[in-house]
Amino acid sequence: MDGCDTSPVPPPLDRADSRAWCAVAVARLSHDQPEAALEAARQAIGRDPQDEWGHRLAGAALERLGRDTEAVAAAREAVRLAPGSWAARLRLASALRRIPGRWREAWAEARRAVRFAPDEPDPHVLCGDLALLRGDHDGAARAYGAALRRRRDHPAAWVNLGLTLLRWQRPRDHHDPAWEADPRDTGRARRALETWSRQVRVILAVATAGICAAVVLPGLSLLAGTHRQLPGMHGEARIGGALALAAVLVVCVRQAARVGAWAYVPGMLRRDLRLGMSVALGLLTPAAYVAGLATLPEPRPDSLQEVGGVWAGATGLVLLNPAAAFAVRLLAETWRGRPVAALRRFAAALPVPSGPGAADRDRTAAADRAATRDIAVAFWIVAARAWQAAAALMLVPNAAGAPLAAVACLAVPAGLLRVRTTGAPRPHDRWLAAALAAPAVAALCAACAGAARALTGPDPAVVALWRCAWGALALGAAAFAVRATRAWWRGGPGPWRASLVPSESCGTWIPGDLTPSAGLSEEVRHAAAYSRNVVLACTGADGPRALAVSAVTSVTPAGEFRLIAGDEAWDAVRRDPRVVLFVGDPRFWAEVRGVAVPDDDVLRVTPRQVLMREYPGRHQARTR
């Protein structure tokens, strides 16, 4: 955990107490000491193998150590010991999501955790994280909203909700984690498709350049009226163009054999914008090349004037498609999502400072590294939008011949002022400051130049203002280039979408999958095992019901009740697993709130909260 105390956590005073060892494991995980936490969890398991809390903590420590397979095994053992524990289900779902091809199982466990404990925020957050991994931004936003309704200060919910507004995609967005395919197989397919597209476009671009040289240069010599004419190579150009198509066919056959996961290619193209554009250009470029080859003009003196539009367009597409693809991808990356609204969510994840200097929110930025990093990237997206909008609005007056249209550039600084209302602290980055100021200055200069041109006509001051406007835009582009180069050189996060990261922080409280299980006192165990006055309260088809329990077969060392009940209780549990057991005793009565799970011929009830109360007349209560 970022910014936490890393001082060693000592072992418990009572080394024979398994739950004391579990508390030490939680403290060590909170202090970012996973190896020491794993040792404490194993000490707890050795003293009480039936307590699922120790297995959960071992799974959490193993996950932080990167031992995902062992973490899943530990979490499964916790679920086996307490199938009605929402925390155990949450731990298992969290471990499974890191295993390739296990997304569906992780989703099922996370939904069970929500069903068992709908009042807890962490299961909803995990459901949102799993939906976010698939690119289901609307579903993720609903899950994060449900978590925030239960706990308004959950930082991970706020940060990841902001990512849904930015339409964040994980780095390997071509792969759907719900697919049963290995990500390595789809990764190989993606590389093969990109290599195929790149090789096809390069081959055809080189061939097109050679054809243009063979056709255009003789036309230029004839058009110039030189005495020495270059020999025309129209026929040779067609033959060479056909050979280039043969080379393209060889590339297609070779790369098609490397794809392998053809069944997943359509889904990959839908999920990955860059891959889809690359494949589309790989198909469109040969078609344009064939069209250009079929309409190849003859080298005549007037050939430059009579070049057909089909040939010119096809040649331009073959030669210039990389630049066009880059421009389209840049626009799509810049204008996707709502960065201003996302900044508000990121700011809500930061703790509110208190005490002296509370107005300086920047000092709280280290509380959540994911939030501060995403805030910086969102600011860069805003700067890129402002730059592109200013450039587009500055071109309008010249293209339309209406100087007063430059006044529309004032929308750029007005839009930048909205960012100040988000409450997000601006990072201490001088290059970002320059990138934000550049479009505002350029827009103001352009608006003044347009107004002055409309009022006074041509004037040297107007020209100077326009030069200042374009110079400011150039400085903004230079600031972005310097910041990007610096990030590339240092290997740190850069001013682009790929630097956005989700958060897993739970703030200052214990994460849900580390919370202790409910313990049972010996009094409650004895009363449940020997009392004939046990009532099960559950939700029936027509509302709450109180049903008599036929027998309590056992109370496990972990505190789990095993009951024999009628069919009505089974139907109610399938409808809503949350139940309450009332256990009577001559001295007191106990209220056990928990989750019931059918298992063969018994109902297994895992306690969440245990209340012990004395009978009326002695108004005292004890809560465990």
UniProtKB/TrEMBL annotation:
Q: Where is the signal peptide?
A: none
Q: Does the keyword Membrane apply?
A: yes
Keywords (alphabetical) are: Membrane, Transmembrane, Transmembrane helix
Q: Which InterPro entries has this protein been placed in?
A: TPR-like_helical_dom_sf (IPR011990), TPR_rpt (IPR019734)
Q: Where are the transmembrane segments?
A: 200-225, 237-254, 275-296, 308-328, 375-396, 402-419, 431-452, 464-482
Q: What is this protein called?
A: Uncharacterized protein
